[in-house]
Amino acid sequence: MGVLLQIRDLNLDFMVDKKRIHVLNHVSLELYEREVLAVIGETGCGKSVTGNAILRLLPDNAMVSGNILYKGADISSMSDQEFRLLRGKEIAAIPQSPGTSLNPLMRVGLQVGECVRENDRKKGRDSKEILMKVDGIFSRLRLPGGAGFRKNFPCELSVGMCQRVLISMGIIPNPNLLIVDEPTKALDWTLRKEAVELMAELREEAKCAMMFITHDLGAAKYLADRIAVMYCGEVVEIGPAAQVINTPRHPYTQGLIASMPARGFKVMKGFMPSFQELHSGCRFSNRCEWLTGQCRETEPPMAETARGHAVKCFHWNRVAGRAGAKECC
Ligand SMILES: Nc1ncnc2c1ncn2[C@@H]1O[C@H](COP(=O)(O)OP(=O)(O)OP(=O)(O)O)[C@@H](O)[C@H]1O
Ligand code: NI
């Protein structure tokens, strides 16, 4: 499979109160055509800002360097007009929160209908045809459809239903790349499972590549071909999903897996450092049991430890020895 998206040495700083806060640090990763790459890591580690950098949705106080190439063309240097041709068509997004992402004053049928109309290659369909398409999409997402359902405002639907409506709007353009940010965050366990299963089905149908941003390792394992683990603004491990989950090679990935309910809920000690008080060397060093003097002084390079599996740790070899292959989730 060819490379669809390539992030090369992405650095992101935010200006806050005239201070420059360095958030993303040398983030590099690739997304291949039709693959699902899950991006996991604890809250505040930089998952959403990475997705937003691709979508050019960063706020004005953001300063970005590096390259983001989509099919070889640099997104960051495209004009707004050029990028608009990509976003929402070739590159689409399913946002994090159904509560704030749907227009509260517009009936859901109308919102999805507008989206169908905008993306319709055969322009000029009449309203009846559009409504039929909307109902078709709703039924594919196991939503009731029909006039009664279409007339609902978002607040009249459950969170799970709103989430499905949002998912429908992400897939209408038939994108090549879908960026899905934490689609299960607001949902309880049953709805979360349903949403992940639905996403897997749609992915099969749509055959698009997906960047799936999540806290949920179980969901990542279920959906993803590869997993990128982020910690404090950096990718610390990336590789095939089964390898990352079953034989993690970074101490942070091991900690994340050990903290899963299925692995005994062992909470990792310490906290992610604040971006405003970063120390030199490895950003995980203050929590790491493999810590040596080298880790405090020098930032570890990203080392390829097996084909397609890279780890940002001086001690990955010893760490990997401890992991053992276990099934989880
Ligand atoms: N506009 C902004 N100005 C300053 N800092 C910001 C801004 N947006 C995000 N950040 C900071 O960037 C860091 C990364 O945020 P991001 O939203 O990407 O985290 P995340 O990994 O998606 O977390 P979560 O899992 O909670 O969604 C956080 O420390 C956040 O506070
Ligand atoms: Ni986020």
UniProtKB/TrEMBL annotation:
Record Gene3D superfamilies: P-loop containing nucleotide triphosphate hydrolases
Molecular function in Gene Ontology: ABC-type nickel transporter activity; ATP binding; ATP hydrolysis activity
Presence of the UniProt keyword Secreted in the record: no
CDD domains linked: ABC_NikE_OppD_transporters
Sequence similarity: Belongs to the ABC transporter superfamily.
Catalysed reaction, written as an equation: Ni(2+)(out) + ATP + H2O = Ni(2+)(in) + ADP + phosphate + H(+)
Subunit record text: The complex is composed of two ATP-binding proteins (NikD and NikE), two transmembrane proteins (NikB and NikC) and a solute-binding protein (NikA).
Classification via PANTHER family: NICKEL ABC TRANSPORTER, ATP-BINDING PROTEIN, OLIGOPEPTIDE TRANSPORT ATP-BINDING PROTEIN APPD
Assigned EC number: 7.2.2.11
Protein topology in the membrane: Peripheral membrane protein
Protein name, as recorded: Nickel import system ATP-binding protein NikD
Domain ABC transporter as annotated: residue spans: 7-257
Keyword terms, alphabetized: ATP-binding, Cell membrane, Ion transport, Membrane, Nickel, Nickel transport, Nucleotide-binding, Translocase, Transport
Enzyme class at the top of the EC tree: translocase
GO CC term, one of those recorded: plasma membrane
Example of a GO biological process term: peptide transport
SUPFAM superfamilies (UniProt xref): P-loop containing nucleoside triphosphate hydrolases
Subcellular location: Cell membrane
One Pfam family hit: oligo_HPY
